[in-house]
Amino acid sequence: MPDDAHYIAGIFLDERSVISRSPQVEHERKVAIYDLLEANHFKPKGDIEGPYNLHLSIEDNRLAFDVRDLHDQALIRFTLALSPFRSIIREYFMVCDSYFKAIKSASPSQIEAIDMGRRGLHNDGAELLRERLQGKVELDPNTARRLYTLICVMHVRVRD
Predict the structure, then answer these.
(1) Which residues face 74 on adjacent strands?
(2) Which of 149, 146, 106, 133 is nearest to 43 (CA)?
(3) What angle do CA 101, 124, 128 make, to 5 degrees?
């Protein structure tokens, strides 16, 4: 972890209404949480000292960030509308489906091309997250990528 205390020490996803996840989605969730907790930069606006426990949930079509201290005492809470993420998440899911199908039968070059598209969409989603969080919390690109993965995992239950 960095020398400063602005990082996520624990992350908790609201699992109340999760449908069963595919093994691939569950693997992505575990990897994203592991990578996020290994290294991240997360600094809420204001004089809020970390490290932080972050509770993510989807409430009324909004993504809720409930930032708490290590004793789970509330520090700050904010929400983001999910509508700006819907199309990119939908597109990302479609490319991921193509990727998982391709690894069973496609050539290495076809798999690589699909994977490049998948990574590009993921980067776009992470950058959108950083933009939408401007003025609320400062994130580094890798933290945004891991959080975007977790948003996608949570979004599985609400996607149309």
Answers:
(1) 68
(2) 133
(3) 135
**Amino acid identity for residue 155 in this structure:** H
Q: How far apart are CA 98 and CA 158, in angstroms?
A: 20
SS (H, E, C) the chain: CCCCCCCEEEEEECCCCCCCCCHHHHHHHHHHHHHHHHCCCEEECCCCCCCEEEEEEEECCEEEEEEECCCCCEEEEEEEECHHHHHHHHHHHHHHHHHHHHHHHCCHHHHHHHHHHHHHHHHHHHHHHHHHHCCCEEECHHHHHHHHHHHHHHHCCCCC
Give the mean pLDDT of 127-141.
95
- What's the Cα-to-Cα distance from 8 to each of 23, 108, 121, rounded to whole Å? 26, 37, 24
Instruction: Using pLDDT thresholds of 50, 70 and 90, give the confidence band for residue 64.
Output: very high
Type of residue at 106: A
